[in-house]
Write a structure and sequence with these properties.
The chain is built from three helices and twelve strands, in the order ββββββαββααββββ. With 177 residues, the chain is of the alpha+beta class. It has two domains: 143 residues, no CATH class; 32 residues, no CATH class. Strands 2-1-6-9 form a four-stranded antiparallel beta sheet. It is globular and about 45 Å long. The two termini are 30 Å apart.
């Protein structure tokens, strides 16, 4: 699942950093989001105005979950060259292929029963932090981390500290610089 935080106060949508415990704030600075453990998909949200918040009480921040099936297999927001689940993707006058209802049903059928997508019967869900076992409100924001020196793609410590350009003349995951 891909997770984002939506702040209803300022309307900002914020993706957590690729680094664990690296908080990112919305535009109005009321809410912060970060991965407690990105590999396990454990996400945390902080409300600056109500730091004691807990449980699935909503507040002004929401976790938006996007099923990876729609990102990997196409959909109404995907480009026309994305691989489709069905052999007969519907072609519209604008040239885009749309995922058919049968494709959505197939993605949901292959989704574990414990996922919110299954009970909502949707490929996109909005939940309050703390409503699911992999999200929670946090009273304290992690201390600010020093700037990352890896490129975020190859996992290596490859950026020059002053310029932040990749040291590699070739990074296998990024191509040539």
């Amino acid at each position: 699942m891909t997770k984002l935080m939506f702040c209803a106060e300022c309307g900002d949508t914020v993706a957590p950093s690729h680094r664990d415990l690296d908080a990112r704030w919305c535009r109005c600075k009321r809410h912060a989001v970060w991965w407690r453990d990105g590999r396990q998909g454990l996400i945390s949200v902080h409300d600056r105005l109500m730091p004691e918040r807990n449980g699935g009480d909503g507040g002004k921040a929401w976790i938006i979950g996007i099923h990876n099936g729609i990102l990997l297999h196409g959909g109404t927001i995907a480009d026309s060259h994305a691989p489709k689940l069905s052999k007969e993707g519907t072609k519209y006058l604008d040239g885009n292929c749309r995922t058919r209802a049968e494709d959505v049903e197939q993605i949901l059928a292959e989704t574990p029963d414990s996922y919110q997508f299954k009970t909502a019967r949707s490929l996109i869900v909005r939940i309050s932090p703390g409503y699911s076992s992999d999200s929670k409100w946090e009273a304290v924001v992690p201390p600010e981390l020093p700037p990352s020196t890896d490129c975020g793609k190859c996992g290596a410590d490859c950026r020059e500290p002053l310029t932040m350009f990749c040291k590699h003349s070739y990074c296998p995951l990024r191509g040539t610089r």
